[in-house]
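General statements about sequence and structure are easier to judge against a single worked case. For one protein, we set the task of working out the structure tokens from the amino acid sequence alone. This step matters because it turns folding into a mapping between discrete strings. The amino acid sequence and the backbone structure tokens for this protein are reproduced below.
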Amino acid sequence: MSLNFSQFIPTIPFILQGIGVTLKIVASAAVLGFAFGIVLALFKIGRIKLLTWLADLYTSIFRGTPLVLQLMIIYFGMPQMIGFEIEAFPAAVIAFGLNSAAYISEIIRAGILAVDSGQREAAMALGVPYPLMMRNIILPQAFKHILPALMNEFITLTKESAVVTVIGAMDIMRRAYIVGGDKYAFFEPLLIAGIIYYILVMILTMLGKVIEGRMRKSD
């Protein structure tokens, strides 16, 4: 059977509308994951053993189970527990954010530990409170070390966001699937979706390199 892309050209604007949904989910999940990831990282390097154990357990669970399973538990399973349905968009943000936090916490933890310990000792000797030391001294330096890894996580999150199609979110992949069902041909619209994802990833990759280059120049 030959391919016929001409019949799918009018559907491209419909598929492209999914970019906004995809980026909103990814951006919201990235903010949630980064904020929670910082908390988890601080728990992991802290002196309270219970918090360290809980943070490690959390990371182990979310890194050791499929993202699509976590998404389906939140979207299909949680309503059974809380008594009301969760919309596709917040369910996706929560699932991706919680999953991303597990990976980001390890990235941030490694970045914090990479900062010269002498600076922490000097801050403590000067009587700088722990929260201020982390916020003003340690974390800004750690961020420069972990920026490439954070960008890679953001890129990975963008690609993995395609699984929201299983809960009906109208992202790029879902729209391509709808077009395929309408035309009784899936290869062409899915290939179009793949090209869109590839372009998004390339843009994010170049953006990450530009930001990294500017930060190096500022050192």
Observations:
- The two ends are 58 Å apart (CA to CA).
- The mean pLDDT is 88.
- The first helix runs from residue 12 to 16.
